[in-house]
What does this fold into?
Amino acid sequence: MKKYLLTLSLALITVTCFSQSGIYYKALLLKSQYSPITKKITVDDNVYNALKDLFPSNNSKDSVIAQMNRNPFLLKMFVPQAGAAATTPLNFVASAVGGLDVTNIANGIADLLIDRAKQELTIAFFDRFKKFASDPQHPEFITLFPQTTDKLDSLLSYNYPAMLPQLRSAFLADLKQAPYHLEAVLALSKYQPLLAKFPEIKIAIKSLQIVRDLQNGASNAADVLKTFATDTAFNWKDASMSKTYRNTGSLINLSYIISESLRRDTVKNRDSIWVSGKQIRALVTDNTLATIYMGLIYQQISSQKLVYYTAKGTDSLATLFANQKKNILLFQNKIAEFISLTSEVNNAIANNNAKKAAKQALTNDDYYNYINTSLDAINYVFSMVKVIDTNFNTNNILSIPIKANSLYKDIYTKQYNQAVSDGFDILTQLKVLADASPNYTASKNDKLDSLLTFVAKVKPYAIFMANVVTATSSADVEAAINNAILPVGSYTIKQRAVWNFSVNGYLGYAFDFNKIGFSDVYAKGIYAPVGISLTHAFTYFSNKTERYIPITAFVSIIDVGSVVSYRLSNGSAPAATTTNADGTTTSSMQQEIKLGSIFSPSAQIFWSISKTPFAVGAGWRRTPTLFYSGGTSYTTIGAKSVFNVALLLDIPFFTLKNTPLKQ
It folds into this structure.
């Protein structure tokens, strides 16, 4: 940086000496004042002082301009500077700097700053990622992503491009083991009191095992029902459990009894679990056979002494089942539908067995279809018992294994973003299960809330890694990093913050007034300031609901509104470049950017319109110096202090510090 400041200082010193140097240096000075747009040379005090000694007599400024315009090499190239002030050292420096054509330099510096800012932000992102992964308050992360955590520990943030392939491989390996890792998260010691208090969550853990057991052949759909009904870990008949929980156990047992009543001998028939539609036809069409079948079901329910709790008290489940004596036709229809579903399971089993016999490897689709049809059949058995209790919610029981099967498919079809989403949905589903328990009351230190908070915090990192895994080019990786740093829509971060400190831009329309108020308009048009913002959300209550008003104090450095306005009017096609005889290049861009054209400090207050990216604000600003070409003259309008009122889009570039609102 010192090197560049020294270079700039030397350049300015050199300019001050032009007027006292030879023809070559005078030519350089004139070239610096030449505009490729107007093809004119503006004669300010410095140019005049350099030229006047060429005219020993009659060397007033007007006379020098007139004589230079008659020069056959420089015909009509010289124009006077509008509103030129007396030359002082300070005015000279301001003139020399503010009048410089910095079109290419400004664009180059801007690109450099943006690229370096992205690099710094990327390093900061990986530092936060490492810190989050190693935080002892987040044991869930190392449980879910053990290999990723190991690679993050050895990650050198400043060398992240070289480390990304290893990180990518580790995350992919973790993702393939996601069902096991999700189960391990629930087995963490911090969640054991939760499992003891809310046995409904045990269903979640057991249901995660269902998909694994179905996939590896350790179980089939009918065995799954048996496990749900008979596994002592569920304690369905425990008097300390809620009545809702015990009712769930009774209905699951009834589902198991119905399933077992229709099972086929799998020793003799390895290709099917339940009887076929052809075999069941008599049960569906013969009322006498159906009545006998219902009687035997009743007898088995009675022998198990299953009870059911209603608003009126306690009933025997057998008695409630007996009340359906007149609904035999309804049961016949449901059995017919169930057997129709089971035929799909039987077909999937037969297909898989045929492939194994032919020594063909089962595909991922084979496993997925078998698991999916099995879950459909299990879910239908559960729904059959809703004849007894229409409020029995079967969705809560199988929602997690259904998600787990979707997760399995996401992974083998390489839909890694969806895999991350489905994996975290499994964890958030635990809250749904707990909410269904009459014993559950959310509290501030609730372990479930802790789990949901973890999911919210880890999800951006997991999605970032999923994007990296799916990336097929360096551009895709760069896009993943940019999205992770601060995605579009990040204005919402500011609006939901107690305090937010950001590097910020705005874009919209503004009015400048000569004095505070809404009269005496000085100028109006596109406004695009860039600077530093400090936002605070002021809270208040309306109808007992907490609401907030985000207010931002903004200090700008530059305003690129004129650049934006030009590009909106003329398109964003790159400018053509002409190579001059001396080897230098000249931009053919119609817009010439001076340093003074974008320097526009301000101090303003903005009110963010809640849940939108728009902001309304007002305050002081110093307008940039404006340069206009009139064809034969080059006019400069100096900076001016004005009262500014604007309607703008809020565009945070990156957050320096953020303290979010407590939800």
Q: What stands out?
A: Residues 486-660 form one domain. DSSP finds 26 helices and 16 strands in the chain. The CA atoms of residues 236 and 249 lie 5 Å apart.
